[in-house]
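Job type: complex structure
Entries:
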Amino acid sequence: MDKWQRKIGTITFLLALGGLSGCSSLEIEPWVKPYERQNLADPIMNYSRHPIANMHVAHVLEARESARGAEGTGGGGCGCN
Amino acid sequence: MAVTKMFPENKICQNILQVTWLVLLCCAFSLFTLQANAAVLAPDRADILYHSYEGGGMKIDGPSLLVRKKTSESLAFKAYYYLDSISSASVDVMSTASPYSETRHEGQLGVEYLHGKTLMSFNIRQSDEDDFLARSFGFNVSQDTFGDLTNLSLGFAYGDNEIGRNGDESFQEQSEQYRINAGISQILTRNLTASLNFEAIADKGYLNNPYRTVRFIDNSLPSGVGYQTEIYPETRNSFAAKLSASYYLPYRAALFFHYRHFSDSWEITASDVELGYRHPFGDSFELELKARYYQQTQAEFYSDLFPYRDAQNYLARDKELSDFNDLTLGIGLTYTMPASLSFNDWPAEATLQWDYMKFDYNNFRDPTAEGGIGNEPFYGFSANVIRAFYSLYF
C-alpha cells in the first residue's frame, strides 16, 4: 500500500466516522451550554467575517505557492507568469 | 538519462470516486433520519471589492462582487464575480519572453439549502482568460451534531480545464481535477473553537505552464545556456490537512491560529502557519493583524540548471516548484458606517486591508542578474496586496 492509498484510507475513515455520527441517535450532553456561547457568537470570532477578502487571499496564495487544499475556497486559472 | 517515477493516477481517482459516492449516500441518509432543529443560514449581504497585487514585476488589479440572498429560511443563493487585470514583466517572462497583459474573468453561482441541522450547498464556477478556460462544480454538506458542539462537513468538486497558448492556434490541451474534502469543527470551551480539515486533490492531463522553459548547459551556444519546454507528469495527487483554532480573549478580542501541512506525488512538502488578531475599538472600528509563514520543498523533477538537453523524463524550472519560503504581514481596519452614510439605513462597513509579502527562493536563481550561468544570486521579491471593500447587510 503506497502512501497515497493510506491517505485516501484516512479520509475514508474520517468520512465514515462523519456519516456514522450523522446517522446515530447519540444523546451527548453538551459541555458548553447554548447560553454559554455568547463569546463564540460574537462577530469578531468569525474568521470568515469578510468572505470576499478571504477568497482573494486564497487566490493570491494558490497562484504563488504549490500547496493547495483544505482552505474551503476554489482556485484555478491564475495569471501565474 | 535519469528516470523519474510514474504515479498511480487511475487507482487514486477510482478511490476518490468510490469514497465520494459513499459519502453522498451517507449524507443523504443522515438528512432524512435526523430531527429537525433550528440552524440558520448566513445573513443577506453584498460586498464590492477592489483588489491590487504589485510585486515581482507584476501588477494585477480589478473589482470583485459577492451577493448572497435568502429567499426563505431554508434557501439562499450566492453570486460572485471577479476580474483580474494583469500586466506582467516577471522574472520568468523577462528571461525568455516579452512582457504581456491580459484579463481573467471569474464567475460563480451557488445555492444553499438548509434542512434541520444539515446545510447543503452546490456551486458552479467558470474562469476565463485568453489561453485558459476553467469550469468546475462542487457539492458540500455540513451537519451540526453532538448538542451542536460539533459540525461535520464533506465535499466533492470536479473541474475541467482547457489550456491554450497565445500565438499558437494549434495548441490545445486539457486537464481535469477531482477534489474531496472533510472537516470537523468543534466547540471546546466557551471561549475556544477548533477545526480540522482534510482535502485530497487529484489532477490529470496537461499540468504544465505552456510558456515556461527550463535551461540547460549548452557550450555550443555563445551564451553557454540553452532552453527547452518544461515537461511535467500528467498526474498529480496531493493531500492537505489544516488545523485551525479561534480564541476569545477576556477583553473582547479574538485570536486565530492556523497550521497546514501539504504533500503531493511530485514530492513537494509544504507547511504554513498563521496567527491573526482582531481587536474592536469603540463601536465603529475593528483592527486586524496577521502574520503568516510558508515554506515548501522542491518538486522531484525541478532544477534551476540542467546539465544537458533532455536530462530527465520530467523537467521543471517553475519557481513555484522550487524550494522557497514566504512571509506575509498584514493589517486591516474595518469601519462600521453610521446610518447617515448607509444606503436605506442598512448596516454597512468599509474595510481596508494591506498585506506585505516577501518571497525568498533557495534554489531558483535570477537569470537576469550578473554572476555567470548557474552562479547568479538566488531570486527573491516582495509584493504589496491591497483590498478595499464595502459590505452591506440588507
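Summary: Residues 9-33 of chain B form the longest helix (25 residues). Residues 9-392 of chain B form a domain with the Porin fold (CATH 2.40.160).
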